[in-house]
């Protein structure tokens, strides 16, 4: 049985092209997410704003937060970035493009505010 080198070369070319385009697209998405997604921490809630043309703002009370995760995939790890995901019973809210140290610091700050709100209730 003999492999056709022409098909193998085309297959490898298509594979590496798809991988390269995926990587480039992902590296473009990181700055996009970073520039057009905002968050702000208030005393009783978090505010999330997203969108370039159609903006939406979501307010999440600290009492509704169940847990928080810090995620870092291979492309984010290359840039020392992370995403912070805030889980509620209804949905998840994500803050992307944070430095890893800032994401872990923000996670601890939010957890402290959640504990403070829970103690006040």
UniProtKB/TrEMBL annotation:
One matching Pfam family: bPH_2
Recorded superkingdom: Bacteria
Entry-linked InterPro entries: YdbS-like_PH
Keywords linked to the UniProt accession: Membrane, Transmembrane, Transmembrane helix
Residue ranges occupied by any YdbS-like PH domain in the UniProt entry: 36-109
Protein name: YdbS-like PH domain-containing protein
Transmembrane segments: 6-29
């Amino acid at each position: 049985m003999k492999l056709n080198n022409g098909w193998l070369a085309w297959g490898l070319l298509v594979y590496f092209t798809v991988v390269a385009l995926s990587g480039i697209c992902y590296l473009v998405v990181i700055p996009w997410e970073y520039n057009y997604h905002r968050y702000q921490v208030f005393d009783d809630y978090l505010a999330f704003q997203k969108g370039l043309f159609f903006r939406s703002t979501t307010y999440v009370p600290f009492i509704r937060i169940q847990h928080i995760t810090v995620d870092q995939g291979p492309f984010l790890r290359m840039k020392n970035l992370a995403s912070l995901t805030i889980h509620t019973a209804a949905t998840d809210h994500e803050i992307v493009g944070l430095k890893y140290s800032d994401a872990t610091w923000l996670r601890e700050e939010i957890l402290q505010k959640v504990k403070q709100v829970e103690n006040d209730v």
